[in-house]
Amino acid sequence: MSNWLVAEAESALGGCLVALRRFDEAEPLLTDSYTILKNRRAIQDTYTRLATTRLVNLYQAWGKPERAAQYR
């Protein structure tokens, strides 16, 4: 996956999986899509910031605040 639109879709799917508390499935989608969006769209891009928020939400919901802090 290297297309930023695919990355955004996978980030959205990861966010849905977090809402379902399926953290193990969500994590690779969210981390991979974040990396692609950061590299293709820039760190301050709207889609990248949304992907960042989804990662923070994942780690907060999963009880891993130290991991969430890496993306704040």
Characterize the structure shown.
It contains 4 helices and no strands. The protein is an all-alpha fold. It has one domain (4-69). Helix 1 runs antiparallel to helix 2, helix 1 (4-19) packs parallel to helix 3 and helix 2 (23-41) packs antiparallel against helix 3 (46-61). The longest helix is centred in the middle third of the chain and has 19 residues, at 23-41. The radius of gyration is 11 Å and the shape is globular. The mean pLDDT is 95.
SSE inventory with pairings:
Blueprint: H1 4-19, H2 23-41, H3 46-61, H4 65-69
How many domains make up the coordinates? 1
Q: Percent range for helical residues?
A: over 70%
Shape: globular
Helix segment tally = 4
Secondary structure tally: strands = 0
- How would you state the average pLDDT, rounded? 95
Report the biggest beta sheet as strand number plus sense, adding barrel if it closes: none
Q: Which regions contain 5 or more consecutive residues with pLDDT less than 50?
A: none
| Rg over C-alpha atoms, rounded to the nearest angstrom | 11 Å
